Each structure stands twice: as C-alpha cells, then as structure tokens.
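Posted in: Protein Modeling Q&A

I'm a second-year student putting together a small comparison for a lab meeting, and my supervisor asked me to include a predicted structure for AP-3 complex subunit sigma-2. I've never done this before, so apologies if this is the wrong subforum. The sequence is pasted below exactly as I got it from our records. If anyone can share the structure token output, I'd also love a short note on what stands out.
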Amino acid sequence: NHGKPRLVRFYQRFPEEIQQQIVRETFHLVLKRDDNICNFLEGGSLIGGSDYKLIYRHYATLYFVFCVDSSESELGILDLIQVFVETLDKCFENVCELDLIFHMDKVHYILQEVVMGGMVLETNMNEIVAQIEAQNRLEKSEGGLSAAPARAVSAVKNINLPEIPRNINIGDLNIKVPNLSQFV
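Accepted answer (user: helix_wrangler)
Welcome! Here is the predicted structure, written out as tokens:
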C-alpha cells in the first residue's frame, strides 16, 4: 500500500532507473483506482501506453500486477494471478507479505514455475505445488546451500589416496602440491 515492491520481474530489458520509474508509475495508476472499478487499465507512458495493459488484483495489503501486451486475454491473466496467489497460499500456509519478503527465493521459484521468459508455462495449481514440493525434498536431501562447504570438505577427506601426491605431472605441465596436512 506504500508503493514498496515485494516482487518485481521484468521479461524485457530495461535499465534499473527505468524499472524503478515503471514500478512507481504502475503503483500510482493502480492505487488511484477505486475497488469497484474493473481490474484492467492501459499501461502508462513508460510501459507503452495503449499497446500494453495492466491487469491487477488487490489482496489485503498487496497488489499483484501483471503488465501484458494488448493481445493477451484480460480474464486469462486475472485467472493466472489467482492461480499464483493460491499457489503462494498453499506453499506458505496463509501467505502474507512477510513470506514474500523472507522467502524471496521460493517466491521467485514459484513464479518461474508459472511464467518463464514472459510465457505462461503452467496454470494447474496442483502441478505447480508438486514441483515446489519436489524442489523442497531435493533441497532437504542435499542439506541446502549452507551445508555445501561442509559436504565438500567431507568429500575431500573421504578420498582414499594411499598418500597425498606432492607433484602432479601432466605432459609438460608440472604442478607442485602444497602441504595440506594442516587442513586434513
């Protein structure tokens, strides 16, 4: 409600300052509309005017806004927003603004399951949730990114070498290996 974007994804290349201007202009266009008015409006001057449409839904303190070209179906995009919000709600169990802030990586992943490169990939919420759950299982089985350094050290320690090589010769290339005993 204060114009602070919680998730921004552009599928066309814009310089950072233009992106910020587009977000501000979009916020002002959507905010000044009454809740009784339809959820479609022409894009602003920065977005491309009548060639583009802003389609939005207002949930609690959040506005979900998609900017699409004039060939897209407004009702189809409204449905897409609904699927996206319901998927967020299912993945976060009653999604709120803080979920979007503190789980930005997961929110981007969910959006990427729905839309990639500006093209709608999936609109079946059950399919999207299944992919998210599969990703969560994979992350848990790998111990997450924070465990990667520990797994790498463990893997190096578990290498069964009869002795640590001091020199490695590959053709004309001679590599002297430093003393690693302090790390083992």
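A couple of things worth pointing out for your meeting: The beta strands are 40-42, 52-59, 62-69, 115-116, 119-120, 167-170, 173-176. Residues 16-137 form a domain with the Beta-Lactamase fold (CATH 3.30.450.60).
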